[in-house]
Amino acid sequence: MEKDSDRRLSCMSDWSRRSKGKVSFLLFFTIFLMVFLAYPVLAHEVGEEGITNLFEKAETLTVPYVAHPNITIDGKIGTDEYSSAGRFVDEDTGMEAYLVHDGENLYVGLRNPGQGWVAIGFGYNIEDLDEGASVVIGYIDSGKLMIREFHASEITGEMEVKPVKELGGASHIISAKGAEGGATTIEFVVPLNASDRYGIHLKPGKVYPLIIAFNDSLKEFPSNLDEGELHFEKAYIVRQNDNINEIENLFAMKSNPYSPYDTVIAMTIVGLSSVALLVVYSRKG
Amino acid sequence: MSNKTKSRIREILDERLKLGALSYEIPKHGNNLGYCLGGITLFGFILLFITGLYLGAFYYPDVAKANWSVRLITSSALGSFIRGLHYWAAQAVLISIILHVVRIYITGSYKKPREVNWLIGVGLLATTIAFLFTGTVLKWDQEGYEAYLHNVEIGKMFGSLGTLLFGSASETLNLLTKIFITHVSLLPLVLLLLLFVHAFLIKQLEISPLPWQKGETETVPFTSHLKKLTAYGLLFWVIIGIFAAVFPPPLGPAPIEGIEATKPPWFFLGLYPLEDLFGVRAIFYATTLLFALLVAVPFMDRTEDREPQKRKLMMIGLIVALALYITLTLIGAFAGPSAHLGM
Q: Which fold has domain A53-237?
């Protein structure tokens, strides 16, 4: 008996010695594999910020549908004028943007806390920023509004823009007014669906990249929007006859029409079966 | 087929596959429904695997096309039925696992020498929940999208490690692709490994005795257990099939970013009221607490008694836990939706 147990112990100790090497190898191999597999992700993470990341963490601005917006294009953003509009406010800088549409046109109010240019742009496709964006830039020079449409061939952290007229495009701005006081305010109207590829193209029910920028002193059109303070947001264009509550209800209901019945059934099964199991296995054998 | 032919076929197969080895003896009570719940769950997993292969052939793991591809699958009657099987089987599996855990708890089957197998079982439960979560996200409707956002929010608690594990750490890998890989590759691998060890330990340690059982017990061949399991398993499939045919699986429209409109599916609803009270972090803390308690069970109840009557404190704990789970889930089901992500 003793010999058997000694032999077994000796075998175990041999095995343990042999295994130590194997375990160490496996450990190092696993660590190597983990570092190797994680490297491309980590390397990318610390590298240049990617294009899609510009919008990944962005807030979504809802651009509501209003049949007859009570907006006067006079260069002044009235107290109640944009009460139902989608609103972007950068509390750090004081930059503001107001957006509303009536199914045909987009009404925009912009407020630059400084005296320079202000810009708003809509990308064509949130999933493919290489499709570019349509941008409207304006500033007040000697009391006169200078406003133009620009085109960005792609959405980047620099946002290089070119006047659409240089590219052979037309101007789509229906009306625009601006005013300068302590701050610069600009209002304009453009069609939701422009007549050429360089204008704004927004379909209700979809989400688009939204670019908002301003410079607090430069009174000329920039070639890159990063010459000013640049913000990347997302804009959801609300459909006609929808309101946010209806949209939310619609999305909630369609996602799970069986709720709460499935919950009640599942909980009944779990509850009653558990009681049954408790009763069955608590009886005397 | 004559008995002689049957016997000859059995002989040929046994000679080559050694199926006779499956005729080892197991306790007779192993054929009771309560002791077959684990096997029934396995049948559920098999159905999920088969239907998952079909769905995976058509699914497009990209934010832009995921919802559309699921719609494409369900546009045919066969696709809709197979997705229905997958959808209802996932929920049925969770219920059978919960009941399996409850049965093991009541009969004290986690006690020495089966503590490790209990822990493996807790791992299987965690893996199943991970399957349910990733599956919810993959359909990429409002519910799936919001589930993903909760995942990201919890990931933020762990800094850059959380981004790597729970978020979209890199634009080179589409977030849905990452979740798809987890759902169809990583989790099945973990599940298979755990199932293998679980089954191996059941074979090694044998089916646990009835709580009141002392001494020898009546035995039956394992093959009779397999037959019983197959019968229960097929019945399980039929029930799931009826659900799939009568109640097609729901799918909402592609999500709108920036709104928080849905509530989670029933298996996560218990966390919803906690989220209402304590914020998104409550999901992590409540889940961690639940699993910590499950892990602690064999170490808290170390007496040799298996009869529920002699383990009153443990039974009270079970009743309280179940009552809490059911109550929170029902509160979650009937409470109005509320925003937790600050959108």
A: Immunoglobulin-like (2.60.40)
